[in-house]
Design goal:
Blueprint: E1 15-20, E2 23-31, E3 40-47, E4 53-60, E5 73-77, H1 83-95
Antiparallel strand pairs: 1-2, 2-3, 3-4, 4-5
Length: 112
């Protein structure tokens, strides 16, 4: 799954493990080479408790057009994703440093 272009620029710093009571989540974030900043990003979530893997792909609209400081994004989630997994992935997208213009996302990010 992480061999897709959206994950090519990932590595140890792109892996996050959140440990809870009798559970853990493994999150991997990556991006396409030369499109890491407001371009193409991928997020993979593995839930230790459920054994399920979910993913999200974030793609800036109009990538082939000139750069814009306020891009809009298309976000695609795995089919049949649980509400809890979707929320974890949305939070990861909102906290990502590779997505600069959060207002261009199709969902609201909580302000710090």
């Amino acid at each position: 799954m992480t061999r897709e272009i959206a994950y090519e620029n990932s590595g140890p710093k792109s892996v996050t493990i959140k440990i809870g009571e009798g559970d853990y989540d493994l999150l991997i974030e990556g991006c396409a080479p030369h499109l890491c900043s407001d371009g193409v990003s991928g997020f993979v979530l593995f839930s230790g408790k459920s054994g399920q893997t979910s993913k999200a792909r974030v793609v800036a609209q109009n990538l082939k057009v000139s750069f814009t400081p306020t891009p809009k994004f298309d976000v695609t989630f795995s089919k049949n994703i649980s509400a809890a997994s979707r929320q974890v992935l949305e939070d990861a997208i909102c906290n990502s440093h590779s997505i600069g213009y959060k207002d261009g996302l199709p969902f609201e990010c909580k302000k710090p």
